[in-house]
Amino acid sequence: MANSEAVESLTGPASAAARVEELKKELWRLVRQILESEVCSLEFYEDASRALNALKDIRFRGGVSSKEVLACQRKAEGKMEPADVPKHFLCPISSETMRDPVILASGQTYDRLFIQEWFRSGNRTCPQTQQVLSDFTVTPNHLVRSMISQWGIEHGVTLPPQDHEQGGLITRKERNALRRILDEISLSSSIPEQKQAVRELRLLTKQNGSFRALVGENPDAISHLVSVLSVPGLNCDRQVQEDTVTTMLNLSIHESNKKIVGDNPQAVALLIEALKTGNMETRSNSAAALFSLSALESNKVKIGKMGAMKPLVELLEQGSPSAKKDAGSAIFNLCIFHENRAGALMEGVVGVLLKSIADQSLVDESLAILALLSRDQEAVEEIAENGGVASMLSIVKDNGRTRNKQNNKENAAAILFAICMHDRTKLREVAEEEKSTGSISHLAENGTPRARRKAAEILEKWKRTFCSTHYSC
């Protein structure tokens, strides 16, 4: 009996959970070593294979269900199961333990944030009794609050804080849904189930800000999601790739997730790979995700160093109209970081941007990027050599009065000024245009403040350089 109990203690759910965690950490360490090292011995591959087989044996052959393992993991981490908490401590709306219980005129108790959200949404009834309320005053329920606090002390439970993101509150139902989806992604041996789980996560992160916020509590969720594309049978599935990339885009909208996703090299690598190999929708969403992530300075550096610029420039040149727009936005954000501008120039971005202006396909974004690039001399030289003066003058001459037109003229003037400061011979083209149409003078009088300043500086430079010897002014 003693021996059998000993065996049970070694093979039961708690032991399995601990072993699973140990194997997962070891496997991640080995995989990172293999991926990040240019020269890696055969031993690392063999160790990774052994760890993977051991993990598979525990999960699918050892008689311990994934649910039991996860239950033991949550217990070991001090996470409460719903049944652990007395029912009258749970908010009827969220099914979460109440942090600030309040009483309505109907006599029912709710957590303050959730009942306030209920009223803000236009509801005028008590959620439980459906009684129409004429008084929406809420009164603190000190008794219930005291009972919850005492219960937590007696059971050694630290009550979780409430989460609030842009008016969206996280409920226990949502937590359980996310946990279930992540379990299906990482633990299921069924490819259809994994595909469905990724699809469901894509939809939920699109529709619900709470799911985007929840990733902050579950940073491993990104790794679980990325791991799907290494599963045989899923790694070449275009729909799974699109769903995964789009989920990354949805998650990146939440501010705190930008750092979480950006700090995961596998996630950024996945987005860059999708830029190269995905369908047009996937490539567009990948560019949009990189644009969102690049709002953080640290992410600009990482994304640029990992090689995003080349596929972004290719998408800018070859993509659909919406894909080009997403690529342009990402390139602009990345080029705010000085070192990324050199990468963009190397990939031929100037020629692509000038062609877009000539084709009238992406004028606003192209001018904004060129104005940013024109802060660097190398870029100015390339713009000038590729017909940039004529292109910018055509923008300045445009008689449009819309806000976009005015902004475009401002950027064109800034680019022209940079060119003229670098190469005085280009002033001849500007002078000919000015004598013919007076467009620079007109901009100096009627443009935006920055456009007027740049146009005036161009005219002053022209007059100092040529008027006295070559032109009558």
Distance between the termini: 109 Å
Helix content: 55-70%
Q: What global shape is seen?
A: globular
> Biggest sheet, open or closed, and with what strands and sense?
3 strands, antiparallel
**How much is the radius of gyration in Å?**
30 Å
Mean model confidence by pLDDT: 81
H/I helix tally: 26
Class by alpha and beta content: mainly alpha
Taking pLDDT < 50 over at least 5 consecutive residues as the criterion, the unreliable ranges are 1-14, 63-83, 163-167
Portion in strands: under 5%
Strand order of the largest sheet: 2-1-3
The overall strand count is 5
Explain what the structure shows.
There is one protein chain. This protein has 473 residues and is mostly helical. It is built from 26 helices and 5 strands. The strands form 2 sheets. Strands 2-1-3 form a 3-stranded antiparallel β-sheet. A two-stranded antiparallel ribbon has the order 4-5. Helix 8 packs parallel to helix 11 and helix 23 packs parallel to helix 26. 37% of the residues are buried.
